[in-house]
């Protein structure tokens, strides 16, 4: 039943991945799976909900274009988070890490949550640069706390308290990693700009690359500020947008957030995690201020960041969106040359408007403060 149910959703290559799962696991799913539904067609993976007797599961098949991701490190960091109940359980993964099976977490809302706590955390998604975040950022003495900010600050401190992953990368190293990859692809995009079928999109890519190159003096300042604010790295997720966060409750009924998608998780700069939260969550000025204050006043933050780290937050937000632009340009190049995916669609809960990788890059570029 399982194979027949999921077959309509899969490409031939994806079906082969499923069919090579362990026979005992396939047999178990054949017996328990009653329905399959698409969860999302992610930017680097496809996810399916398996409605099973005894508990639903998530089948994830990673895209070939995600070769840049260290899947072994992803599994390592996922399991570190699960050990502290900060992630769903990874039930099985293929030896080549192309296929994962994990628990499906049904978002739950405890009866004592404040009104501003949203059960569907993805509805908090927004794209905010420094202008949007800090233009109305004024002192607010209200006693009423944003419970959303409380949960986010707690999630950050718990994640940053996890054991260090086996690999680490600084913000400056991450920038150089992206930049060198873009440089390596520039020549073939220049060649593609001379062909009829890819000329327009390749020319657009080169124009965006030029803008990034012109930004380098500013980028160096942002990176220097980030480096100066760090005492020592910690466990970081690096992509804490609302689509990667699940509201849940503890066994005691207390509200808690869990994370998914550990593709970028590594030992790194905690301010980048904070930036990924405030840049992608629709928080008002009061909640944003509270989140920053609560996190920076935590013992874990104070052990990893300098006393003046707050002054580097704008740089962290700019770098978050800069890396998003660079990532989108790399993904476009991979898609173009592997004849993979010209357009990508966000989760079904979002607008059904499709965006190309270049559209993402252009969109993210507008969120970088150029002053």
From TrEMBL:
Limits of the Aminoglycoside phosphotransferase domain: 36-296
Pfam families linked: APH (PF01636)
InterPro entries per record: Aminoglycoside_PTrfase, CcrZ_PhaseVar_Mediator, Kinase-like_dom_sf
Coiled coil, from the record: none
SUPFAM superfamilies on file: Protein kinase-like (PK-like)
Listed name of the protein: Aminoglycoside phosphotransferase domain-containing protein
Organism: Shewanella maritima
Lineage summary: Bacteria, Pseudomonadati, Pseudomonadota, Gammaproteobacteria, Alteromonadales
